[in-house]
Structure formats: structure tokens, C-alpha cells
Design brief:
Elements: H1 2-48, E1 52-53, E2 57-62, E3 65-70, E4 73-80, H2 85-100, E5 113-114, E6 116-119, E7 125-130, E8 149-153, E9 156-163, H3 169-185, E10 190-198, E11 210-216
Parallel strand pairs: 1-5
Antiparallel strand pairs: 2-3, 3-9, 4-7, 4-8, 6-7, 6-10, 9-11, 10-11
């Protein structure tokens, strides 16, 4: 009887020892993965800050509303029947990324810039990359994919409202309406569609920057 009890205790002790050992290994693996994840996100945050951002000047700012002046710039644009953020983001990015990552007649890699423009509506949506400032529509590499169009856009004043986190159709609609109300309250005339500007890759979890913009008439000094 004592032998059986001792054998049972031994087996129970071995079981708990193995369980604790497995738990220790699991926690070590989780800790390593967490460290790798944090290091990657930190590296990503600082590397994104080195990306060329489209030049602009802030001419007015109050609360969460900002008025900017953008000089003329050249864009690579695709048009799409997509009617949602997710649908346009996937199909549009694939085509535009193909162009800047060597899918052009010069086989040239073009540096990624920010932001990415998305005009989402019920008729014809579009997505645009801003080309680096050294390019214009006549000297930029010609896309292999003819659905990618190079366009020069004139200088413009825009009203801007920021939001954080990941963009969704619901957020885009909500911030667009909020921006529209702010402009109406201040009697600022706007024209064209409200566009979404994204500054971060989808795998960046922290420090995300999103904006809604619309062209306005701005005559104040």
C-alpha cells in the first residue's frame, strides 16, 4: 500500500514537473516573440519617419481642423469600380506597388512616399501614390500596366481632419461628415470628393496617421 502510494506521488510529481517545464518553455517563447514584435514595430515606426512626405504648408489651424497649401505634384493613379476602403486598398495597392517596384519601362524602383490617396465613391473610385519630388509626368518611368496613369495635379488648398488607428469605411464616413460640418459652420466653400490619406503600412500597429481632406476656396492671407 505504501509502495503504491509512493509510486503515485512520484508519478504525480513528475507530471507537475513536466507541466511546469512546458509552461516555462511556453512563457519563454511568448516573451521572445513579444520582444521581436516590439523591436519590429519600433524599427518600423522610425523607418517610416524617413519616408518622403508630400510637401505642404499649414496656413491655418484650430482644434482638429487644418488648412493646408499643397504645391503642384505628380501622382501615379489607378481607377477602380471598388466602393469600399478594403476593396480599393487591396486591388489598388497591388497595381501601384507593381509600378513603383520595377513594373515600368525603365525597370526602375521608385521610392515609396506618403500619403496614399484614396477617393472612394459610388461611381468611380481611385487610388494614388505621390511620386518623389524629383519626378514629373514627363520624366517619370512609364508604367507597364496601362491602367496606371501619371497625372500632374495643380496646386490646391485643402481642409484636413486627422484620426488615429486603422481606417474603416465607418470611420472614413464619420470623419468626412465631421469635416463637412466644420466647414459649413465656418462658411468655407469646398468642392469635389472627400479623400482619405493614409500614411502607414497595414502591419504598423502604433503611431498610425490617417486624414480626410477636401479641396477648398481659401483667400485669407
Amino acid at each position: 500500500m505504501n509502495f503504491a502510494r509512493g509510486s503515485f506521488c512520484t508519478h504525480l510529481g513528475n507530471y507537475f514537473y513536466k507541466a511546469l517545464f512546458r509552461m516555462k518553455i511556453f512563457l519563454i517563447i511568448v516573451a521572445i516573440l513579444l520582444i521581436v514584435f516590439l523591436v519590429f514595430q519600433t524599427w518600423l515606426f522610425f523607418s517610416i519617419r524617413k519616408t518622403e512626405v508630400q510637401a505642404y504648408s499649414t496656413v491655418h489651424k484650430e482644434s482638429d481642423l487644418e488648412i493646408r497649401y499643397y504645391p503642384a505634384a505628380t501622382y501615379a493613379t489607378i481607377e477602380s469600380p471598388a466602393k469600399s476602403y478594403g476593396e480599393l486598398a487591396v486591388s489598388g495597392f497591388r497595381k501601384l506597388a507593381g509600378y513603383i517596384f520595377g513594373g515600368n519601362e525603365s525597370n526602375e524602383n521608385i521610392a515609396m512616399t506618403s500619403p496614399v490617396y484614396m477617393d472612394i465613391n459610388d461611381t468611380l473610385s481611385s487610388m494614388s501614390f505621390v511620386l518623389p519630388s524629383k519626378y514629373n509626368e514627363t520624366v517619370a518611368p512609364v508604367p507597364n500596366n496601362r491602367t496606371v496613369q501619371l497625372q500632374k495635379r495643380d496646386e490646391v488648398y485643402v481642409a484636413v481632419m486627422r484620426f488615429r488607428g486603422f481606417a474603416t469605411d465607418k470611420k472614413i464616413t464619420r470623419i468626412s461628415e465631421k469635416l463637412k460640418r466644420a466647414l459649413q459652420e465656418k462658411s468655407i466653400s469646398y468642392s469635389g470628393n472627400f479623400k482619405y490619406l493614409g500614411y502607414n503600412p497595414p502591419y504598423q500597429l502604433f503611431g498610425r496617421r490617417n486624414e480626410m481632406v477636401v479641396s477648398i476656396e481659401w483667400n485669407k492671407p
